[in-house]
Amino acid sequence: MAEAEENQMLLPIYCRSTDHKDQLPIMDNAVVVEVKDNLKKLLMKSVAVEKLGSSGKTIKPSIYKIPNFIKDVHKEAYMPHMVSFGPYHHGEKNLAPMEQEKLKVFRHLVDVKGVDYESIVSDVSNILEDLYGAYDDLDEDWWKDNAGSAKFMKMMILHIFYSKDQNTTLTSLISNLLFVEKDELAIVEKKHILHMYRASLLYPSTLSYPNMDEIKKNNKDDKFGLKCQLIPQATLLREAGIRFRKSENKSLENVSFEKGVLTLPSLIVDDNTKTNLLNVMAFEKLHDVGSQVTSFVVLMNNLIDIDKDVELLSNDNIIANALGNNEEAANLFSVLGKGVSLDLGSNNLTEVHQLVNIHCDDSWNRWWANLKHTYFQNPWAIISFFGAIFGFAILIVQAVYQIVDFHTK
Hints:
Strand order of the largest sheet: 1-3-2
Number of helices: 19
Structural class: mainly alpha
Number of domains: 4
């Protein structure tokens, strides 16, 4: 009986007995009207945001709000600390002082420099639909009426004047532009200023992507994915006989492994590294542009686990640690690598990971790595090891002399 009741509970509403129909909620006209109105508002919002741009083409958003599943891990990395560009963070209290600074810049450029602001207003109005369409999930207060549109245009124009101000330091401006939820005003071929910054990290690169079928063929066991995702840290690779060499250019794609030498681009690690790379990684996740930067971060996260890994790579001129503390740099890469994985087949790093693991799995290399790890960690261990070999050699020589002496007699 209990089982029958349980099965009855699991049945969908439209399959249940009509004896229970009086228990179902009755959809009156008011509820139906409200649902229709809500759906109509959603359609109106979609039309308002995804309009035809000034070129007559449908505009696709290129500036996204960071999804919570990304933001929750490193929330502070995606928040502007000094000035906001764009509507997403406009009006936040911690950024209020710079809003006054924007007004000062506007007055200075108009009154002192003689900039014609009316022509800029006209230019912005001509691309207003492009600007609206560039932002994903834009709050309707910015576009639902003339007051909202006027507020949006004013914000954009003040941003233009601020970004053109010669007194604004370039480093400060770039640092504040490198966020997924902010964007420079110019409508350019690249999707976002992060797109341009990402391109600079990957330029120049002449490397071709690997043949994934060939890699899978060479790796016949069930650990293909794991072998391509994980490699030992730098200090363990050095013990396995792998040497590190700085590549000829700074492209993050310029990574290769050949004849026991892992070639890596040089990388400056400073206070901006975490924020910049996290935002580029978020951009790669939200846009169909590839995952080369994310894959490089995965590689560095594998290579760097402790401060000695940072020290090793610094000595080989691969890392320039401006943080001043090797342990802090190691923690930085640990944070960057949290929750990310290598995109198999998207770049040459898949092949690099596999080749490194093949080298480490070689029996001779494993024996040599274990020998160095066990006996060559400090000078006294080295002395003891060679002392033992020397003592063993003396014993052999003594044994040979005794045998020869015995046969001579």
